[in-house]
Amino acid sequence: MKIHELSIKELRGAIKRRELSISEIATAILDRIDEVDNQIRAFLKVDADSLIRQARELDRRRDTGELKLGFLTGIPIAVKDNIVTRDMETTAGSRMLEHYMSPYDATVIRKLKQDGALLLGKTNCDEFAMGSSNENSAFFPTRNPWDLTRVSGGSSGGSAASVASFQVPAALGSDTGGSIRQPAAFCGVVGLKPTYGRVSRYGLIAFASSLDQIGPLARTVRDSASLLQVIAGHDSHDSTSARHPVDNYVSQLNRDINGLRVGVPAEWFSSSLDPDVQHYVNGAIRTFEQLGCKIEEVHLPHSKYAVAIYYIIAPAEASSNLARYDGVKFGYRTGEYPDLESMYRHTRSEGFGEEVKRRIMIGTYVLSSGYYDAYYLKASKIRTLIRKDYVNVFNSVDIIVGPTTPTLPFKIGEKNDDPLEMYLTDIFTVPANLAGLPGISLPCGFTQEGLPIGVQILAPHFKEALLLRVAYNLEQALSVRPPQQPSSSSSI
Amino acid sequence: MPITKEEVRRIADLAKLSIQDDELERFAEQFQKILDYFTQLESVPTDEDDATYHVLDGENFATPFRDDEVRPSLSSEDALKNAPDQAEDHFRVPGVIE
């Protein structure tokens, strides 16, 4: 196997046995990025010099015996560009922050550095993480490695595509309504959204603060567990981060799941589900049965309202969070302004892209005088009903299984003209954010045309160890193999 | 309720956005469709339910105020380094007092 194809676990073993130096790994990763990223365009920024410097420093400390190997020591990790880094620009995929240099590192970045991870670049995303296709990036869309005419998903499409095309073994993303799990499904990788509050949001550029959560994307469940182990935990810089103890996610993966109660929501298998998605997700459910799990049909009666209330609550929070982009303290400022009012207006109108403006205006509308009760308050109350649906279901089952997405990855440009149609692609992912639950998407099959399909598993709050163990057992049993390499590598 | 171009302009004003005349119609159509989709929520009974603003309950998830003690924070140099315009350790903006 080539170095760039190795998992975190394999790279860690090779480093430990001194079969590979960290500099060799860094060089192999940079070569791979050079080879394929001009087609996929997963990265907004790759800092090759810094990567080589970090790797040499680790090798030097390794030679003198000072280096203690953590979970990620010497492992290159890519970071979604809405997570702030002191050493590299952070744009959030927006012209508004095109040259922004954060004065501090996000807590997850500090933790990765402490563990010895190599930070090599920032991945593309929909502007301010608002989108389901990566087409809302102000710079360019990231393409799907399995079919370059299709979307990589969003908003963490750059992170998912970089991992899928073997440019990096793992990446960080963020998930507000499915932005880790949906691109993971579209790109055929593993994507984990932790419980709300499990990972610090300090330094995650705020989109919808009651929903946002950082999580890992990787090619294996085990690698996802390693990354979560490093980034999870309470942080005094984020008052919404939980004091709940952090489990050992990696050591429990091998335990079997015999006797586990698996809930399958009837509402998630309607006639509008793509037949290929239905076929392979059903295959995953049968595999759970073969692993000794008890399959039960469950009901989430309010899940049909999830997209509507998500697209009230998330834009409402966004309209407030994005008020800070006013051309005063950081970011873009318009060139011409006779007074303060026009400076604000021109700055925001020129700096934000269309989808961001649309969501700011929807959010402003649903919070505005006369509409607040009918939209924002109503949605926040139905959010309670969605939470209760899950509490009820988790009284009778241990986990919930279903599709991650209703369709296969769609064509670039296919859903651009109709925002509502794009929003509806989030139907299976938004409930986990609204209820704060941990969720994971992992590949459960590839279509004959070679497009990946993701299966989603949800667990109760803070049951990431269970979630990862279930996903690991399924991953090992399914042993999904793509019919071909990602298109970019076969064509080179 | 129909979303008119004037209503879009009113919302854009509140959000400190300028929308070009040729964009107003498109935004109005899109908002209409999105708000029509929201109407399904009207029929959901919620009189008995509290709103959810934070998904986790319990003391492990409380968001208490910390003690009011002085801690190191960003230097003014760091805080100003991304400013579009600055002078004498301050952010500079157009005059607001006539």
Characterise this structure.
The complex is a heterodimer of chains A (492) and B (98). In chain A, 38% of the residues lie in helices and 13% in strands. Chain A contains 16 helices and 13 strands. An 11-stranded mixed β-sheet of chain A has the order 1-3-2-6-8-7-12-13-11-9-10, sandwiched between helices. In chain A, α2 runs antiparallel to α3 (48-63), α7 (221-231) runs antiparallel to α15 and α9 crosses α12. Chain B has a domain at 5-42. Helices cover 34% and strands 4% of the residues of chain B. In chain B, 14% of the residues are buried. At the A-B interface, α9, α10, α11, α12 and α13 of A face α1 and α2 of B.
CATH topology of chain A: Amidase signature (AS) enzymes
Task: Estimate the strand proportion of chain A.
Answer: 5-15%
Q: How much of the polypeptide of chain B forms β-strand, as a percent range? A: under 5%
Note the run of SSEs of chain B as H and E.
HHHEE
Order of helices and strands of chain A: HHEHEHEEEHEHEEHEHEHHHHEHHEEHH
The global form of chain A is: globular
Number of helices of chain A: 16
Separation, N- and C-terminal Cα atoms of chain B: 41 Å
User: What global shape of chain B is seen?
Assistant: flat
Name the features.
heterodimer, A: 492 residues, alpha/beta, Amidase signature (AS) enzymes, 13 strands, globular, B: mainly alpha, two-stranded antiparallel ribbon
Write the layout of secondary structure elements.
The complex is a heterodimer of chains A (492) and B (98).
Chain A: H1 8-16, H2 22-40, E1 43-46, H3 48-63, E2 76-80, H4 107-114, E3 118-123, E4 143-144, E5 147-151, H5 157-164, E6 170-174, H6 181-187, E7 190-193, E8 214-218, H7 221-231, E9 261-265, H8 275-290, E10 294-298, H9 306-321, H10 340-351, H11 354-367, H12 373-393, E11 399-403, H13 419-423, H14 430-435, E12 439-446, E13 452-458, H15 464-478, H16 487-490
Parallel strand pairs in A: 2-3, 2-6, 9-10, 9-11
Antiparallel strand pairs in A: 1-3, 4-5, 6-8, 7-8, 7-12, 11-13, 12-13
Helix pairs in contact in A: 2-3, 5-6, 7-15, 9-11, 9-12
Chain B: H1 5-14, H2 21-38, H3 76-80, E1 86-87, E2 90-91
Helix pairs in contact in B: 1-2
